[in-house]
């Protein structure tokens, strides 16, 4: 009975997910599409949770639904004149994209079938579970991300970094938010500290339970983004050069650790066993800061203009006085 | 006994969600829709959270349910207020 209920629940959310995906792609109004996309992300997080992948569910809820939604809404706000889709999008493109998506689906389905049916039965997951105790952390997902395939994670950080470099190269920051509504300021005053503490908790708990640098960094960025919405100039708390340091600290610490380990142990990113836990925590802490800085800068749309710094610092003080 | 209470509480919560959804779909304008949605969802989530907290044997987890309810209530009431205020001023919400 219970199994049957859960199965019908799964099938239901699967169909809602497909429906949302269809609507997201086929809606003419961009604002509606963005809203549907956020709903799609939240539902996807529920599905990851149902698949017993809480790490992915956390990441999808924070990054996929939360931060991406905020980025899309901000893009819509900054480019209001372009927010209606041109109706004469060529049929050729539409069908081309459909065919490419279908081909990708077939390829992935074939890959999955091949992996499940045709392999020799040796699963990586079992090996991971056996070797996790040697990795310095007890949570297998963190062990994989920061130890067994640390090189890939380093490159992922580099991808995020490169994306933000492009954002910075695209031009200066878009216009600021005005001073926010009083009730929003009052809520953010409560919420931002909770978000920052939760971010630290996620970072720390990643060693033995779902969590880790990406989720923690995105949550920290969420705190910054909320603060910027209330008119607090987040970027003015940090000057240009410290923002740049924050951006590179994750990838920098990661690479330096890797090179030091290369000199000591003879392999890039091969941690010494007794140091592994500390090194992983160090790298994750640095990566959290970098990811938070990267996502915040992407949301703001570029570096702040330096000459406005003193002005906005005064603005923050006024906000403090006004509501306290 | 406590199981029945929990199920009853969750059922009441689901009824509130149902009423809120019907209100969202059927009511005529933005303000009455927001009214239906925010109130029904807050109370509905409260009943669901109480029900789930009763089913949970660990006290810490029950307190987490309470925390979730408080956070969602803060977020949803503030966002309803903001949406209503922007609509009242006749501005686009993304401005």
UniProtKB/TrEMBL annotation, chain A:
Signal peptide: none annotated. Residues 315-324 have a biased composition (Basic and acidic residues). Pfam families: MbhD, MnhB. The chain crosses the membrane at residues 6-25, 32-50, 56-73, 93-113, 154-171, 183-207, 213-232, 244-266, 278-300. Residues 304-324 are annotated as: Disordered. It comes from the Bacteria. GO terms for cellular component: plasma membrane. Keywords: Cell membrane, Membrane, Transmembrane, Transmembrane helix. It is a multi-pass membrane protein. It is found in: Cell membrane. This is Sodium:proton antiporter. It comes from uncultured Thiotrichaceae bacterium.
UniProtKB/TrEMBL annotation, chain B:
The chain crosses the membrane at residues 6-25, 66-84. Pfam families: PhaG_MnhG_YufB. The keyword Transit peptide does not apply. The keyword Nucleus does not apply. This is Na(+) H(+) antiporter subunit G. GO terms for molecular function: sodium:proton antiporter activity. Keywords: Membrane, Transmembrane, Transmembrane helix.
């Amino acid at each position: 009975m219970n199994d049957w209920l859960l199965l019908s629940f799964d099938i239901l959310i699967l169909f809602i997910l497909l429906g949302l995906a269809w609507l997201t792609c086929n809606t003419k109004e961009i604002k509606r599409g963005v809203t549907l996309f956020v709903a799609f992300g939240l539902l996807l997080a529920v599905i990851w949770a149902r698949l017993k992948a809480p790490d992915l569910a956390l990441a999808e809820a924070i990054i996929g639904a939360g931060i991406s939604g905020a980025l899309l809404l901000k893009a819509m706000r900054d480019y209001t004149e372009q927010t209606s889709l041109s109706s004469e999008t060529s049929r050729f493109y539409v069908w081309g994209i459909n065919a490419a998506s279908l081909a990708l689906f077939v390829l992935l389905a074939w890959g999955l079938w091949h992996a499940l049916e045709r392999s020799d039965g040796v699963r990586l997951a079992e090996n991971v579970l056996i070797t996790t105790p040697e990795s310095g952390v007890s949570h297998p997902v963190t062990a994989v991300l920061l130890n067994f395939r640390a090189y890939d994670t380093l490159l992922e950080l580099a991808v995020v970094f490169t994306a933000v470099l492009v954002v910075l190269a695209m031009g200066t920051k878009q216009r600021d938010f005005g001073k926010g509504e009083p009730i929003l300021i009052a809520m953010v005053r409560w919420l931002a500290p909770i978000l920052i503490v939760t971010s630290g908790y996620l970072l720390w708990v990643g060693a033995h339970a779902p969590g880790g640098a990406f989720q923690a960094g995105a949550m920290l960025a969420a705190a910054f983004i909320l603060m910027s919405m209330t008119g607090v100039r987040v970027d003015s708390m940090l000057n240009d050069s410290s923002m740049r340091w924050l951006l590179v600290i994750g990838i920098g610490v990661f690479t330096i650790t890797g090179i030091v380990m290369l000199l000591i142990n003879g392999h890039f990113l091969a941690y010494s066993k007794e140091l592994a836990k500390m090194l992983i925590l160090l790298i994750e802490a640095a990566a959290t800061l970098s990811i938070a800085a990267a996502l915040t800068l992407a949301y703001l749309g570029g570096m702040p203009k330096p000459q406005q710094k003193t002005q906005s610092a005064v603005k923050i003080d006024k906000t403090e006085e006004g509501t306290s | 006994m406590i199981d029945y209470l929990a199920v009853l509480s969750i059922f009441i919560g689901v009824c509130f969600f149902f009423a809120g959804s019907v209100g969202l779909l059927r009511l005529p304008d933005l303000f009455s829709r927001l009214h239906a949605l925010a109130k029904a969802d807050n109370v509905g989530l409260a009943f669901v959270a109480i029900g789930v907290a009763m089913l949970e044997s660990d006290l810490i987890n029950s307190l987490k349910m309470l925390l979730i309810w408080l956070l969602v209530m803060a977020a949803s009431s503030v966002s309803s207020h903001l949406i209503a205020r922007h609509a009242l001023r006749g501005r686009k919400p993304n401005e």
